[in-house]
Amino acid sequence: MTEKVLTSGDISEIEKAYQHFPLRSAACIEGLKIIQKNHRWVSDDAVKELAELLEMSPAAIDSIATYYSLIFRKPVGRHVIMVCDSVSCWIMGYEGILNHLKNRLNIGYGETTQEDRFTLLSICCLGTCDHAPAIMINNDLHRDLTPDKLDAILETYK
Amino acid sequence: MYPINDNIEKPLTQHIKNDGSWLTLKEYESTGGYQALKKALQMKPAEIIQVVLDSGLKGRGGAGFPTGKKWSTIDISENASSIKYLVANADEMEPGSFKDRFLLEGNPHQLIEGIIIGAYAIQASFSYIFLRWAYHLAGKALTQSIQEAYDAGYLGKNIGGSGFNLDMSLHISVGRYMCGEETALLNALEGKRSNPRAKPPYPSNSGLFGKPTIVNNVETLSNVPHIIMKGANWFMNLSKTGEGGTKLYGASGKVKSPGLWELPLGISLRELLEDYAGGMADGYRFKGVLPGGGSTDFLVEEHLDVAMDYASVAKAGSRLGTGTIIVLDDKTCPVGMVHNLERFFAQESCGWCTPCREGLPWTAKILYALETGAGKTEDLNILEFHTHYMAPGNTFCALAPGAMEPLQSALKYFKADFEMHIHQHKCPWNS
Ligand SMILES: Cc1cc2nc3c(=O)[nH]c(=O)nc-3n(C[C@H](O)[C@H](O)[C@H](O)COP(=O)(O)O)c2cc1C
Ligand code: SF4
Ligand code: FES
Fold first, then answer.
1. CB neighbours of residue B113 within 10 Å
2. By Cβ atoms counted within 10 A, which residue in B74, B240, B256, B401 is the most buried?
3. What CATH code is assigned to B246-329?
4. A60 and A93 share a domain?
């Protein structure tokens, strides 16, 4: 028997989540979030195991997992950089920030640096357009960015 | 937040601190917080709905539907469903909008109190706050504040000895602009993809898990305690026009002081731009503006004296939307700006209906071709065609018609700029 991805800790968290709902399948998004929180991303095996737990088909789970932009179906690094590419950040020059990041880290969108340090992604308007351009790294918001500021910020994520 | 000491009454934001911390329960109570709830629990639900109707409050989520009218579509008679839901829409993902964030991070209890009063008015027993993932600080503020409200007896069983019970839960979403559309939001809350639902039945009949449900925007609900406390007339008189209240207005783009301000509903676009945003940044000239987020029509110079209320902006050919203006300057390419928007909408289309799923990527592709010098004369007709193809009524939800608003108005006001891209085989702003 192959080893399971979901730990007993994951399973009890997911079980707790579906007790709030009239249907188990309603906890699908919660389940995916729990898996991602504990494992950084959601693997094929994790999808299958979640499907069993929620009495759904793996395909049904995957259709939801791949729909939501913040559920990661591929491995990501320890730090995920999300660059706002929406309209106000575009006007204020987010492309300069993006190019700087790509050059510094030597990766493009969807890619991860060596030793799994950073993954680069885009994200929709971060709701801080009066401080554009803006990015998030993990749960942290960084605003009013310039390339110089960015370098100092990156150093704080080891 | 305020560069100007303007003596304007600012019920929503006057107590918000500027050190980045939110008002705790104690602090909120010391500003009169939860007094409105106590007052509301002495009133009949129908009386509350009437006050909200009389206040003229219109939904601040973008569509501007009268809140009291929405609430009155819920059956609160004896034989109504015993399970009902009230959902606060804190998904805020409209490009260029940043107003709900400020209320969530600064005064979470004001929203919670608004939800409790709203839930009492429609006799809901469960409430959700639907929050986008990116708003982490708001998530922290709400988690702590909901707990405080439970501990103080403002949530839970027999609130304030009134016999009214209400639970509240925070749902943190995982991306997708479509989650903000109210029926799609309900699907997301049920753990599904955020495709919209056919209407009718309206959520007020059959919403979350098939039960009667009301969805309201954060700013809408945050107004409710003040309306209950100070009355419909007071609220109506806050505004400069026949639509009640203040409004959170914002400005982004190449203006001197981008920011967010609570102002009487109906101040003019010019006042907002010049007095509050400080005018254009040095070296930039005004070219146009999206008055209420990415899915509204451009307004231009001739519209600067338009009052920023729902009716006046509509009359000028656009929508007040979220009230956060995005300013286009003379050094920014209008075609590039519209390309950025259409690419966003194409990416966020939920794929449920054909005109939107196929039409938006096509539109984005043409705009990209124009930007990179590969545009052809007939492209303008194809773009024009799409603005009709995705007009209201042709798609399942308002995402696609919303997406067409900046495009159709750009074709109207900036046609010469589109043509220049074709004739010069390049973007004139990108030499
Ligand atoms: C694609 C799309 C996205 C939306 N996003 C939001 C949102 O993030 N927040 C919001 O309050 N309303 C949003 N709306 C409007 C909601 O459908 C709904 O009208 C609103 O939440 C109702 O609240 P109100 O009556 O208080 O304005 C969106 C609508 C569409 C079509
Ligand atoms: S208009 Fe677009 S977003 Fe709305 S239902 Fe159709 S495909 Fe989905
Ligand atoms: S457009 Fe980037 S934060 Fe709004």
1. 27
2. B74
3. 3.10.20.600
4. no
What does each of the 431 residues of chain B score in pLDDT, given as a tens digit?
Answer: 555 567 889 999 999 998 999 999 999 999 999 999 999 999 999 999 999 999 999 999 999 999 999 999 999 888 888 899 999 999 999 999 999 999 999 999 999 999 999 999 999 999 999 999 999 999 999 999 999 999 999 999 999 999 999 999 999 999 999 999 999 999 999 999 999 999 999 999 999 999 999 999 999 999 999 999 999 999 999 999 989 999 999 999 999 999 999 999 999 999 999 999 999 999 999 999 999 999 999 999 999 999 999 999 999 999 999 999 999 999 999 999 999 999 999 999 999 999 999 999 999 999 999 999 999 999 999 999 999 999 999 999 999 999 999 999 999 999 999 999 999 999 999 86
Report ipTM (2 d.p.). 0.96
User: How far apart are the C-alpha atoms of B69 and B54, rounded to whole Å?
Assistant: 10
Spatial separation of the C-alpha atoms in residues B277 and A101, rounded to whole Å: 30
| Predicted TM-score (pTM) of this structure | 0.97
Three-class SS of residue B253? strand
Cα torsion A33, A35, A38, A44 to 10°: value is -130
Q: Could you say which residues from 187 to 206 on chain B have a Cβ atom under 8 Å away from some Cβ of chain A?
A: 188, 190-194
Q: Does A3 fall in a domain?
A: no
Instruction: Tell me which residue range forms the domain holding A148.
Output: 79-155
Whose tokens are 């194809």? That residue is B382
Domain spanning B334-430, CATH architecture: Up-down Bundle (1.20)
Q: Tell me if chain B has a CB within 8 Å of the CB of A142.
A: no
Residues B46, B40 contacting (CB under 8 angstroms):
no
- With tokens 């050094």, the residue in question is B331
Q: Is A156 helix (H, G, I), strand (E, B) or coil?
A: coil
Residue B119 Cα to chain centre, angstroms: 20
Contact between chains at A125 and B190 (C-beta distance less than 8 A): no
Give the position of tokens 């009718």: B200
CATH number of the structural domain spanning residue A48: 1.10.10
Cα-to-centroid distance, B271 and ligand 2 (Å): 36
- CA pair distance B184, B203, nearest whole angstrom: 11
What values do phi and psi take at A139, rounded to 5? -100, 10
Ligand 2 residue neighbourhood (C-beta within 6 Å): B 178, 196, 349-353, 356-357, 395-397, 399-400
The answer to whether B337 contacts A68, with C-beta atoms less than 8 Å apart, is no
| Interface with chain B: mutation pick from A36, A61, A70, A88, highest number of B CBs within 10 Å | A88
Token pair of B353, please? Answer: 């209906």
Burial (CB count <10 Å: 0-12, 13-18, 19+), residue B42: exposed
To which CATH superfamily is domain B25-237 assigned? NADH-ubiquinone oxidoreductase 51kDa subunit (3.40.50.11540)
Indicate yes or no: CB of A132 within 8 angstroms of CB of B192: no
